[in-house]
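Please supply some protein, with fold tokens.
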Amino acid sequence: MLHWADRRAWRQARTLPEIGYLAADWLEGSRRWSPSYGSRPDPETAELMPLLADLNRAGYVTGNSQPGHIGRGYDGAHWEQRAGVDGFCSEELAEAIQDSALDNDMHVTVYDPAGKPWDKDMDGYVVTTRNGQPFTTFGHWLGASHMDLNYGQLHPRAIGALRRAHQVTVVDTQWGRTEQLWRALEPLTNFTEES
């Protein structure tokens, strides 16, 4: 299904806040299409969607997210996941996310718009294993080719806003734990930029 009205709305977005509001609408189901995901979020994130929507409206435009999990997966294999989320935001919100994450026993990676990490080079965090083998990582810097691949259907000014944003990844330090990360981020749903 093409969802022309949703595609048109995304194409009209120009700023990071406009992208965040559209992403929140998509998470809540009032938009049926997203440029980076297509039709609907993965079912495993259903319980996270209200908080993710609020974070998007507060200025943290989330990309990937997952809950913690340990046990059998959809394919019968043994899966282990760390709760994690990544996304784009202003420098001020990146600082607030970093402070909250570090205060709550989380890994955090922040890249400035030039792709330079605030503290050290990062190869990403393994956030999912399948039968004990690394399967998924979060925390890599996303460059221009990634922006074009995942957001190429947006207006060039919107892509520019994403490229000028800070990229922030937060990952729980413990496998299978879900609540800690989301409790750490929940206060940021009321974040407002200082003038």
User: Anything to note?
Assistant: The longest helix spans residues 16-28. The radius of gyration is 16 Å. The helical segments are 4-12, 16-28, 49-57, 91-103, 144-151, 156-164, 179-185. The chain has a mean pLDDT of 89.
